[in-house]
Structure formats: structure tokens, C-alpha cells
Design a protein that fits this description.
This protein is α/β, with parallel strands linked by helices. Helix content is about 50%, strand content about 15%. The protein has a domain of about 140 residues: Rossmann fold (3-Layer(aba) Sandwich). α2 crosses α3, α4 runs parallel beside α5 and α6 crosses α7. The longest helix is centred in the C-terminal third of the chain and has 23 residues. The two termini are about 10 Å apart.
């Protein structure tokens, strides 16, 4: 089973990707993790990636495709994958289809978490992390209090990029790049859109229901 999971910033995609990995014993493919791993291994490809990043350039689709190709050819994990936030544009989606075909594999389902802009902004703007204990809170949905947080409030911090302008820019980029991908997968009857608002367990139950229909 090979899955692709989409979701805008703040949709809870990372949490649901981890749930998929743990419940269905899948291997998560995150391009960010792949890039860092290849750089750390100091391979020729890794050096090429590091050079591009050091110059402030985006890593090319061809370089990313080379990493994805390695994953699909790895018999230990092939046909047992969940792609987290990849592909990021239509060309990558088309290339991924070709890579699957070349390796006699296929995409089982494409899952997309849908969340409205207002909720996303609140989720991201409200994020607070305790620098002392590491707990994560949200001032709108899961505010810290004396019962759930024992550290002093001065330890609660926010990420510097968690501001409304940055969030809106990230959302605009996401929707601009992913809408063509959704159409691409919808035409192949692979796309399943899931309401990303609600309890984490409820959302994952809907994801499980969809996957279970694929397996029967």
C-alpha cells in the first residue's frame, strides 16, 4: 500500500502521517528528511543538494526525483509507503506516477485534509511551546492552565514565523501549487478529501475507514 497525504500548514498533516506509520506499519517519506539524510551521508547527490541550499536555491525536481527513485527501488520499504507533503507541484506528481510505473508499483490512495483558513490561522497563531518541558499548547483550542502545565508561563514561547502574514503567504503558495495536483489525482479516482476539523482520533478514524475500503 502506497499513500500520499496532503494538508495545508496547520492542518495536522504531520500528526496524521505519524498515525498512519504507527497503525499500518508504513514508512514515511518526507522530502525534507530525505534531503537532510543525503547531505549527512555526504554522497555526491548530497553534496549537490547542499550546494544548492547553500546558495539559497530551491532543490530541483530532478534531484528530489532521484531520492524518491532510491526509495521506490528499496525492496525493504517499497509498496509500504506514505508520502508526507510530496509531491509539491504538478510536475512532481507526474514524475512520481512514472517512477511508480517503472517499479511496477502504484499509488493506493491520495488523502487530503481540508481545513478552512480561519481555523488554520488560529491553529498556527495560537501555538505555544514550553521551552522548559517541551509541551505544546494553543491559546485558542488547548490553552495552558494550572492543571495541564506546571511550568512558569514565562517559558511559553512562539515561533518567530508564526505571524499572520507569513501564514497567509504559506497558504497561498500551498493552494496555488496543490490545486492542480488535486485535479490530477481526482481524474484518476485516487483523491479522498477529509474534514481536518475535529478531534485527532475522529479524523484518523475517517482515514482508517477509507484505507480499509481499499484493502477489501
Amino acid at each position: 500500500m502506497n499513500l500520499i497525504l496532503f494538508g495545508p500548514p496547520g492542518a495536522g498533516k504531520g500528526t496524521q502521517a505519524d498515525n498512519l506509520v504507527n497503525h499500518f506499519k508504513l514508512n514515511k517519506i518526507s522530502t525534507g528528511d530525505l534531503l537532510r539524510s543525503e547531505i549527512n551521508k555526504k554522497t555526491p547527490l548530497g553534496k549537490e543538494i547542499e550546494l544548492a541550499i547553500s546558495k539559497g536555491l530551491f532543490v530541483s525536481d530532478d534531484l528530489i526525483n532521484s531520492l524518491i527513485k532510491q526509495m521506490l527501488e528499496n525492496k525493504k520499504i517499497s509498496n509500504n509507503l506514505v508520502f508526507d507533503g510530496y509531491p509539491r507541484n504538478l510536475r512532481q506528481a507526474q514524475d512520481l506516477n512514472l517512477l511508480f510505473k517503472a517499479n511496477n508499483q502504484k499509488i493506493s490512495s491520495v488523502l487530503s485534509l481540508t481545513v478552512d483558513k480561519v481555523t488554520i490561522i488560529k491553529r498556527i497563531l495560537g501555538r505555544q511551546t514550553c521551552s522548559n518541558c517541551g509541551l505544546i499548547f494553543n491559546e485558542f483550542f488547548h490553552a495552558p492552565n494550572l492543571n495541564n502545565h506546571k511550568c512558569d508561563r514565562r517559558f511559553l514561547i512562539k515561533r518567530s514565523d508564526d505571524n499572520e502574514k507569513t501564514i497567509l503567504d504559506r497558504l497561498d503558495t500551498y493552494f496555488k501549487e496543490t490545486l492542480p495536483i488535486f485535479s490530477f489525482y481526482r481524474e484518476q479516482n485516487l483523491l479522498h478529501e477529509i474534514n481536518g476539523i475535529g478531534q485527532i482520533d475522529q479524523i484518523f478514524e475517517e482515514i482508517r475507514r477509507i484505507i480499509n475500503t481499499l484493502e477489501t
